[in-house]
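Quick log. Single chain, no ligands specified.
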Amino acid sequence: MIKDLLKVAEQRMQGALDVLTDDLMAIRTGRASPALIEKLQVEYYGSPLPLIQLATISVPEARQLMIRPFDNAALKLIERAILASDLGITPNNDGKVIRLNLPPLTEERRRDLMKMVNNRLEESRVAMRNIRRDVIKDMKDFEKEKLISEDEQRSGEVELQDLLNVMIAEVDEVGKRKEKEIMEV
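-> predicted structure:
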């Protein structure tokens, strides 16, 4: 019983960590990365699609992204989506591909990005604490229904807290790596 709850909690916490990692990949650092724009929503024939489904994204230079749409009709739509996004990058359209030149980050922009990263890290920690709260509630319900003993419930809570501590340490590690990436000049 307790082992099953702990396994479910670990899977859910790992899911929260995976979501965090994906979110942080989209936050711009000094280098060009396709992850920066691949989830950008483009209005294509009346329905929003992620950019990765409409074009190939490559990195021809360290500070440049090149977007080659599968359908040339999507070129203007992609350009419009980039301009409407909060990336702050002006696309260069040559009729076949769109090039995005990433300017170097200013110190102020780096601080803003770090605030964004720290907010995402805190959201992830809160999500993991909520998972812990839900699992503890389930354990208490099992104990009330006499499916597990009070001692099993307590030891389960201790194991759950240990799991939470490990997962939060991983969140912090992901945050440190991203901070190092952002602050790298």
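The longest strand covers residues 55-61.
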